[in-house]
Design brief:
The chain is of the alpha/beta class. It has a single domain, classed as Rossmann fold (3-Layer(aba) Sandwich), CATH 3.40.50.300. Helix content is 43%, strand content 15%. A five-stranded parallel sheet has the order 2-3-1-4-5, with helices on both faces. Helix 3 runs parallel beside helix 4.
Length: 169
């Protein structure tokens, strides 16, 4: 069975880094894996959406639907998406068979995320240039019971990858 591994967390926590590293590892083992990255999707499929709660919900809904189609086609899908609201992530999970959706909470303190911010989004948000920035002016609801909780400020990348792969069939 192909899986959807859903990486959620703040901007700068390491979601995309983990997803792309895992894609490389899985591909090297012959697994057809693909990353659906939130930043990339916002420039194409979801470029008509803003950052209101309604638009964020629609962003997650669309990504969940695409991920489901891709898993049905035999691809292991790695979603790297802030997806700040629990209810939206729960709706995405319901699209998949039991055990097929793996929620990974990529967790790092806000100050660590700000230090890692290569795009300068947090600085822009502090200047008021990014309205609705998650964890700055918009909430992030951490998962209550993720399948895996990774503290990327404390655990090296290789160890995080090993923990994720341990969950895969």
């Amino acid at each position: 069975m192909n899986n959807c591994i859903w990486f959620t967390g703040l901007s700068g926590a390491g979601k995309s880094t983990l997803a792309f590293a895992l894609q490389q590892d899985l591909s090297a083992c012959g697994v057809n894996a693909y990353v659906l990255d939130g930043d990339v999707l916002r420039t194409g499929l979801n470029n008509d959406l803003g950052f209101s709660p309604e638009d964020r919900a629609e962003n997650v809904r669309r990504v969940g639907e695409v991920a489901k189609l891709m898993t049905d086609a035999g691809v292991t899908v790695l979603v790297a998406l802030i997806s700040p609201y629990r209810a939206d992530r729960d709706k995405a999970r319901k699209l998949f068979a039991p055990g097929q959706f793996i929620e990974v909470f990529v967790d790092a303190p806000l100050l660590t995320c700000i230090k890692r911010d290569v795009k300068g989004l947090y600085a822009k948000a502090q200047r008021g240039e990014v309205p609705g920035m998650t964890a700055m002016t918009s909430p992030y609801e951490a998962p209550l019971n993720p399948d895996l909780h990774l503290h990327t400020d404390l655990v090296p990348l290789a160890q995080c990858l090993a923990q994720i792969k341990a969950l895969l069939p």
